[in-house]
Specification:
By secondary structure, the protein is of the alpha/beta class. Helices cover 52% and strands 15% of the residues. The protein contains 11 helices and 7 strands. It has a 7-stranded mixed beta sheet, with helices on both faces.
Length: 324
């Protein structure tokens, strides 16, 4: 079988009731493209029997390619594995619970054919999610947008199409705390959004309780900015400034007033000053740690969209020989 044009990747964690419909809707949509496609189902350590359904689907249809994890590694890692195994020219990441309607894939593909390398789906409306989930999600995205250096488009999740050229770069980024939507924004290239209405979960419950949302937010902030480290330094400088103001007040009181508050003030002043100095020191340490972290991530220094071919042209050596 030749390499497919499209790869659809769905991470699966206990999605027993959603799998058959996911397969049905994805294949119906993808058959309309009249191109070869594959569906990679990454089983992220399901314990509800999803694994058997995945095996069954794969046995029925060779276009379904299962990747079965030994245990639960988390959503972002599951998608990463799917991207590693993908063979398509364009790769679409979709949630297995049908919150991302497979029909939207056709619109993503349309933009890809127009020449966009990253087409992300933007949620205009969300159905069937609690007030709490909506508010926390919205706060989450706004905060991340403000803080991080790479501008991840608002109201987007992982539902997106990525062209092979951009995918190869993302696949090279092997950092462990992974925020794919951030990495997708980081690589650049021609990007565009397509709006869609996020549906309610077809069956089952969210696997993203508040605890995991917070972890995701922490990963996004620490993975794409050094904001928390800068806060240390800013706080330290603020405290030192405050202690200097107190020093002035202290001196004024000591010289001009007989009012004996000076001892209390002196104690405060010293404490605040020391705390400030310590915070600045921690900020400086943090800056170095931040640099180590940047190096450890080992991201590519630059990404070329168009350039001369760097790979060795097999005829080049022959030409060199001929010339000598
Ligand atoms: N998922 C996964 N591993 C996990 C948690 C979730 O592969 O540890 C998958 C899940 O099966 C679904 C997708 O990630 O296909 C999104 O999860 P969910 O729908 O629970 O998140 P939400 O849409 O509520 O943010
Ligand atoms: Mg969901």
């Amino acid at each position: 079988m030749s390499d497919p044009v499209f790869t659809i990747i769905a991470p699966i964690y206990n999605e027993l009731e959603n799998l058959p419909l996911l397969y049905a809707r994805v294949s119906e949509v993808m058959n309309q493209t009249n191109e070869e496609w594959e569906l990679i189902l990454v089983d992220d350590g399901s314990r509800d029997g999803s694994t058997d359904i995945i095996r069954k689907l794969a046995a029925q249809d060779p276009r379904v390619r299962p990747v079965i994890f030994a245990r639960n590694f988390g959503h972002q890692i599951a998608v990463t594995a799917g991207m590693d195994y993908s063979r398509g020219q364009a790769v679409v990441i979709i949630d297995a619970d049908l919150q991302d309607p497979p029909e939207v894939i056709l619109e993503l593909i349309k933009k890809w054919r127009e020449g966009y390398q990253v087409v992300y789906a933007v949620r205009t409306e969300r159905e069937g999610e609690s007030w709490f989930k909506l508010t926390t999600a919205s706060l989450f995205y706004k905060m991340i947008y403000k803080i991080t250096d790479v501008k991840m488009p608002l109201n987007t999740g992982d539902f997106r199409l990525i062209d092979r050229q951009a995918l190869e770069i993302i696949n090279q980024m092997r950092e462990r705390s992974r925020i794919l939507r951030g990495m997708g924004a980081w690589v650049g290239f021609k990007q565009i959004g397509v709006e869609y209405k996020r549906a309610a979960r077809h069956a089952g419950q969210t696997h993203y309780p508040l605890k995991k949302m917070i972890k995701l937010a922490m990963n996004a902030v620490t993975g794409f900015s050094t904001f928390p480290l800068q806060m240390l330094t800013t706080g330290g400088v603020g405290l030192v400034a405050l202690s200097l103001i107190l020093l002035v007040i202290y001196l004024c009181l000591a010289v001009f007033s007989r009012f004996d508050l000076t001892y209390v003030l002196a104690a405060w002043l010293t404490m605040i000053f020391l705390a400030g100095i310590l915070l600045i020191g921690m900020g400086v340490l943090g800056e170095y740690i931040g640099r180590i972290y940047e190096e450890a991530k080992g991201r590519p220094l630059y990404i070329v969209a168009e350039g001369p071919d760097k790979s060795l042209d097999p005829t080049r050596l022959d030409r060199v020989k001929e010339n000598n």
